[in-house]
Specification:
By secondary structure, the protein is α/β, with parallel strands linked by helices. The protein folds into two domains: 243 residues, Aldolase class I (TIM Barrel, Alpha-Beta Barrel), CATH 3.20.20.70; 81 residues, Elongation Factor Tu (Ef-tu), domain 3 (Beta Barrel). The chain has ten helices and 20 strands. Strand 11 and strand 12 form a beta hairpin. Helix 1 runs parallel beside helix 2 and helix 3 runs parallel beside helix 4.
Length: 407
């Protein structure tokens, strides 16, 4: 039995370190150009080399996104870009364009090539031809049900890897190829600059057809008719593995390190449960609850399951945020956590510790000190280093969070 790879997003070095610490087998990240996410910090040449060294030193692979649909001007710069990232030591290049694929074969012949979901691979013939063109993996279109994935696996060469998304935000347009943002704002989603107009509230007006109403959910805030629910396949990882998926991909290169840590940790534990007993995979409620302790929209199973069709989230274009990060853990010594504050917290609050080496646990904050040992009642300076009393040891890389729903 082959255990699927866990592939996590890394928008910056902090996110990358969180992904590795919480159990990712591979990370995907972007350089300062040619990637489908412009909002994260991404990695310059020196940072990319540092990231590769950090990951390879811990047995983790690095896949770099080169998945824009390149303009003619970008096509001129592609050869040098490909040579630079290959020299940095990345394990694979994620591409969405045939010209980029063939160029990469010539400029970096030893580099693995993964076909981005942007390419919209939905059948075995396309997957097979891409394999013959040099692709070692296809990231399948997000619109495929499990039975179609099984057919693709059965009818493609065994050496072709199959990757699929298991968690995160969904795009209303086919495999992310969207022009709405470019039309409405001039920000091209295919350059990584999407303004997310699918998350905006809309009002439907048809002045020449009075009395004719379309079935659109609407109230005084408008109608979020394009707003897809988030994907969560944690309860169904066994079905994905049985269908032939080799790599489970978490969406979120624009998300925080807390998101990356919590979701990577949850799926890492879930994969461990699956590998221990594939025939009786049944993740506990606590593991499912962990996926709801990050910012998210209501979850669905996307297009994978025929009896659970994808849905829109009509209530708003925002996120559900029931928990928030208050500090990151730098170390623990003699009953005190050394941490870096991210959000204000006070004496008497109950916090929960997210940790890479065990299940979360809660404790009450009964003492706070600054680095000089002075007692504090309130931690109110983001990025300030503090000591917080906690008898249970907490490894560096842990995170302190609190429940805020209804606060």
């Amino acid at each position: 039995m082959t255990i699927p790879e866990l592939l996590s997003p890394a928008g910056d070095m902090e996110c990358l370190q969180a992904a590795v610490l919480y159990g990712a087998n591979a990370v995907y990240l972007g350089a300062k150009e040619m990637g489908m996410r412009a909002s994260p910090k991404n990695f310059d040449s020196a940072q990319l080399e540092e990231a590769v060294g950090y990951c390879h030193g811990r047995g983790v692979k690095v896949y770099l996104t080169c998945n824009t649909l390149p303009s003619n001007e970008e096509a001129d710069r592609l050869p040098g870009f490909i040579r630079r990232v290959a020299a940095a030591g990345v394990d694979a290049l994620i591409v969405a364009d045939i010209g980029t694929l063939m160029l990469a074969r010539r400029e970096a012949p030893g580099l693995e090539l993964h076909i981005s979901t942007q390419c919209g691979v939905v059948n075995y013939r396309t997957a097979t031809e891409l394999y013959h063109l040099g692709a070692s993996r296809v990231v399948l279109a997000r619109e495929l049900p499990l039975e179609e994935i099984r057919i693709i696996r059965d009818k493609t060469p065994p050496g072709l890897g199959i990757e699929a998304f298991v968690h995160g935000a969904m795009c209303m347009s086919f495999s992310g190829r969207c022009l709405i943002s470019q039309y409405l704002t001039g920000r091209d989603a295919n350059r990584g600059e999407c303004a997310q107009p699918c998350r905006w509230g809309y009002h439907l007006v048809e002045e020449k057809r009075p009395g004719q109403y379309l079935p659109v959910f609407e109230d005084e805030t408008g109608s979020y008719i394009l707003n897809a629910q988030d994907l969560s396949m944690l309860p169904h990882l066994d079905k994905l593995a049985a269908a032939g998926v080799d790599s489970f991909k978490i969406e979120g290169r624009a998300k925080s390190s807390y998101y990356v840590a919590a979701i990577t940790g949850a799926y890492h534990q879930a994969i461990d449960l699956y590998s221990a007993d594939p025939l009786h995979y049944n993740p506990p409620p606590a593991l499912l609850a962990e996926t709801k302790k990050v910012s998210h929209r209501q979850y669905s199973t996307g297009f994978y399951l025929r009896d659970e069709p994808p849905r829109q989230y009509y209530e708003s274009g925002g996120y559900i945020r029931d928990w928030e990060l208050v500090a990151t853990v730098d170390g623990w010594q003699d009953g005190w956590i050394l941490c870096t504050e991210r959000n204000r917290f006070v004496l008497g609050e109950e916090l929960e510790v997210l940790r890479p080496d065990g299940p979360p646990f809660a404790f009450c904050v009964d003492a706070i000190q600054n680095e000089e040992g002075e007692a504090l009642e309130v931690a109110c300076h983001p990025m300030m280093r503090l000591w917080v009393r906690c008898e249970r040891p907490v490894a560096a890389g842990g995170m302190l969070r609190r429940f805020v729903a209804g606060a």
